[in-house]
Structure prediction request, 404 residues.
Amino acid sequence: MGKTFVGFGFGAIQGGLFLPEAYRSGNFSRLVVSEIDSTAVEQIRKSAGNYACNVAEPDHVRLVEVSGLEILNPLIPTDREKLVDAIASANELCTALPSYTLYDAGGQASVASLLAEGLQKKLHNTDRPPAVVYAAENDGRAAARLQEASQKYVSTSLDLKVRFSETVIAKMCSVVMDSKRIAEEKLAEATPGSSKSFLVEAFDQILIEEKTPDGFDRGITQFIPVPDLDPFALTKFHGHNAIHYCLGIKAKEQGMSFMHEARQDPALMDWTKEAFIKEAGVGLRHKFSGFPDDLFSEKGFAEYAEDALQRMVNPYLRDPIDRVTRDPIRKLGWDDRLVGSIRYAVDAGANPQRMVEVARKGLDEIQATKKTKTLQAALDLAWHGQAGGEEMKSIRKIILTPIS
Prediction:
């Protein structure tokens, strides 16, 4: 009998990465996804469980099709019952929500509640297989947060048969909702007439935690298990994500609309490369100087940065700059991508002037949209709720001091 995969949320990461990889592996006889958007549920059911995904290669867009998808809405009692049973039978599961803050939102339809109920059935039945739950939200502690949220609903430790796995997903994924753009780029709709297309890059080096429960046999074999994920997760967040935001802000400043337009400006690409290697890279390499991986060597990081930059400006991905630069309050948070990278660079003795320049531009945007009187007030919005300290005072001064 084949394995069962269960996903939560039918967005770009789930629909463009996890479900296609589970389907491609040929190891799963059942693909199930939980989705509360009734329109999406209706569309998949109308297409008999079939949907399409567009994969942006460096020189063309490749079509991937997935079939046999069972989509369930946990807000509907009969669907919820089926979903809980699928969770109990699942070998691998994945949450791919907009934010980890949604884990326990929605009462009995929340991901944490559903997982707890299904996994508890798994614990109490020896015929149910051990499982791994991948947390694909963009947070270094997503899996730990998900386990904490789920565990509070059960009295028995879920560790007896389940492992919650952090992930490092440096794969750029989007959902295109613009019908005109879908037509112009000849993108396949997820389902016929849905006016929605999954568009993801071809990059597939997804890192996951190596730990698994006893007796577990991994079905998604494309992913790369590593014993210590933290250095890679932080490098993706404070390297790739931070510089992606930097490039987006600078490109937006020059009137560009899509990230790939930046590739036509060598000076901008050089500026971004310098920020990546000599600022973010110096900070990350210093933080993980003793970690045994070539990524944290001078040569290894330079190669990583060059590859990431080329992927950011893939013309077939057509990543909207507004998507990359949205929500500056979150992206300028104390522990978020850019400020975190600035902190690492300062700690390493580097002068992160390019990243600081972008941080100030982000504050300009916050000041304009939130009508704050000063940049400091804008920064206070981004750092709201964070305890003060000498490091915070120092970083605040660095960001708010005008660059001469």
